Amino acid sequence: MRILLCEPGKDAVVTEIGNDLKDMQKVVGGPIGVVYPFIGDNCCIVCNEEGKVRDLPANRPLFDRYTGKVYDILHGTFFVACIKADLLDENIGDITDQGLKTALKVYEHPWTEFGIKLRYARDYRDAVNDFRKKHK
Questions:
Q1: Residues β-bridged to residue 47
Q2: What DSSP element (H or E) covers 12?
Q3: Which of 45, 55, 93, 99 allows an S-S link to 35, with CB 3.0 to 4.6 Å?
């Protein structure tokens, strides 16, 4: 399965993993949790659902899909994939080209790289603008 892998402190990379539960758990280092932060895409974030409790390193912020404000911080390694829905079930599968484009806009580079303190992250739009200025 093709995913966008996001590790703390590293640039995101597109990679391949197996598509069963054990493969996903191995990537995130424990039990998986799924978050759906993207508007209009069938994409999801698969993370370690115990990341905060286990005090894994802060990784990247989660933004409210309507206001763009930071509402939480993902801890530990996570990946972005897409949901393949059929009549009976939803399955996590390959990230689409459109999903990859959307996810890279937000998660391509580690947020700590340009001075955002994750606990006190600013408004999403300001953070993105600062990032663009720094990486021209």
A1: 33, 78
A2: none
A3: 45
CA angle (41 as vertex; 125, 95 as ends), nearest 5: 105
Are 95 and 107 contacting, i.e. CB atoms less than 8 angstroms apart?
Answer: no
Domain definitions of the chain by residue range? 2-134
Residues pairing with 45 in the sheet? 35, 80
Nearest to 46 by CA among 122, 99, 110: 99
Distance CA 79, CA 90 (A): 17
What is the token pair recorded at 78?
Answer: 């996570």
Interacting residues of 11 by C-beta distance below 8 A, sequence separation 6+: 108, 109, 110
Contact of 23 with 17, CB cutoff 8 Å: yes
